[in-house]
Amino acid sequence: MSVLRPLDKLPQLNTATILLVSTEEAILQQLADKMLREDCSSQLLVHLATSLPLPSNVTRPQIDLIVFVVSLHSKHSLQNVQESLCHVDARFFLGRVCFLATGAGQESHCSVHHHTILKLACTYQSPLLFTDLKTEGFLVAMAQRLVRMLQICAGHTPGVSALSLLSLQSSEIPSLEDL
Amino acid sequence: MDETVAEFIKRIILKIPMTEMMTILKTWDFLSEHQLQTINFRQRKEALMHNLVLFCEEKCASLNDAASLDIIYTQVFRHQKLWDVFKMSKKTGRDPDPFDEDHFKRSFMKVLRRALQNVTVSFRDGEENAMWIRIAWGTHNTKPNQYKATYMVYYPQTPYVFISFSRLKRNLPLLSQVFETHNSTSPLQERSLWLNTNMDLRIIHENQLEKERVLKVTQETFGDYPQPRLEFAQYQLETKFKSNFGTSILADREEPLRCLIKFSSPHLMEALKSLAPAGIADAPLSPLLTCIPNKGMNYFKIRDK
What we know:
The structure holds 2 protein chains of 2 kinds.
Chain A: E1 15-21, H1 25-37, E2 43-49, E3 65-71, H2 75-85, E4 97-102, H3 114-123, E5 128-131, H4 136-153, H5 162-168
Parallel strand pairs in A: 1-2, 1-3, 3-4, 4-5
Helix pairs in contact in A: 1-4
Chain B: H1 3-15, H2 18-28, H3 33-37, H4 45-58, H5 63-76, E1 83-89, H6 101-115, E2 119-125, E3 131-137, E4 150-154, E5 160-164, H7 172-176, E6 189-192, E7 203-205, H8 208-222, E8 232-239, H9 249-252, E9 257-264, H10 268-275, H11 287-290, H12 292-295, E10 299-303
Parallel strand pairs in B: 1-6, 8-10
Antiparallel strand pairs in B: 1-5, 2-3, 3-4, 4-5, 8-9
Helix pairs in contact in B: 1-4, 1-5, 2-5
C-alpha cells in the first residue's frame, strides 16, 4: 500500500487535507502556518512529509491535494521529488497535484536548470508555480492560493472541480513548445 | 438540566457500586449535605439513581460537573483502564521553569481548541501532585462523545504522563502530535516538545521517525558541544574517471582527472552539522567531511589507491 491514491477513502464532513512534500521542512512549516491562518470555511488539515512513500502504519484521511516543493538551489531536493512521484497514483495528476519551485530569483545559486523543472511539470501535466517562500508577502499569497485550490480539490466549491481547475490553469502547465 | 447531561450522570451512577457510592458523592462535593443525608442506600439502585438525578436537577448540574464526576469515578477505578506511559525529554539543558498550573491549563485548552472546537476538557487534581485531564472528543459537526473520553495523568515536576486511549481512532493522529505513539512493546517512550503553545495540531508531520533518526545520527557524528571554528576546507581530487557505463572517452583516459573543491563559511563545521537536519543533505554525511576534526586537517588530496 505504498502508492497514494486519490478518492480512496470516505471524506470527512467539511474537511480538506493537503500534503506538502519537500526536503526542507522549515519552509513547509511556514507555509502550513500561513495556510491555517487563512479565513476558510472548511476545516483544513496539513500533512508535511519529506518524501514518499508515507509511513504505512498510520491512518490518515483522504488527501485532496499534493504539493511538491522543489528548491532550484538543490539537486537533492529535485531528486527527492522525482523519486517520490513514483509513489503517486496516476489519477492524482488529474488536477490534484501541483509543483512549487523556489529560489528562481537567485540565478547564481541555482543548480537545477529551469528546463529540468519545466520538463518535470510537463511530463506530469500539472501546474508549476514559481515562488519565493522566504518573503512574507509572497509566502502569504501562495498560502492563499493553495487554500483556494485545496477547497476546490476537496469539492467544497460548488461548480468547480479539480479537473476543471486544471483546465483553467493551463497557462501554468508547461507545454512541449515551452521546452 | 440538559437531557444529555442527565443521561450521562445516570450512566455514571449506574456504574458505581453501592459500596463506593457515598465516598464518590462526597468527593464530588456537588450535592448539598442535606441532599446526601436524605439518600436511602437500602433502596434498589435504579430508584437511588432517579433520586440522585433529581437532586442534580435541583442543583442544575452542568456538563462540567458531570465530567468532574466522571474523572472521580476513573480515579477510583483506574485499574479498569489500560494506561500507556510517556516520558518527555527537554531539548535544552536548562533548569525546568517553575510549573504554573493555570498557564498550563490555558495553553492546553488553547492548543486543543485551535484544532477542534468541539472538545470537552476538564481538569482535576489527584494525589501526589498529579493533574488529571479528561478530554471528550467531537468533530467539526458533532458534539463531543462523553462516553469515550481520553484520560491523561500528568505529574508536573516529572517528565512523565500517563494516557488511557479510547477506541476513537480518529483522534489518535491529533493526540499523537503531542505524544507520538508507536506500536512497540515497551510502554516508555521518549518524546520531545510537550505543549509548545505555537504548536498547531492541524499540522501533521509524517516523517517524524526519519527526522529523529537524522537528529540522532547528527548528534552521534558531531556531538553536543560547539564545533571547532573553521573557515574553509579544500579537497584536491586526482583520480581516474570511474564509470558504470562501459567504455567511453573519459573512462579510457589514462591520466587522472584533477579537480579542486573548496568549502568556505564563517563557521564551516556548524554549517556541516546543520546540513542534514535542514534537509539539504542525507544523514550520515560523507566521512570526507566529518573526519575534519578527527584528523585535524582541512587540506585533503584524494588519489586512487
